[in-house]
Design brief:
Blueprint lengths: L1 H29 L2
Length: about 30
């Protein structure tokens, strides 16, 4: 269904976004 595809895409985008945010935070705090 269209809804299932939308939910799956939303979850993937959210996961990638959180990964980027966490990576930026780790870089800022730990100074890697």
């Amino acid at each position: 269904m269209e809804v299932s595809f939308f939910i799956a895409t939303f979850k993937i985008v959210t996961m990638l976004f959180m990964t980027v945010v966490n990576g930026a935070n780790d870089h800022s705090i730990q100074g890697r």
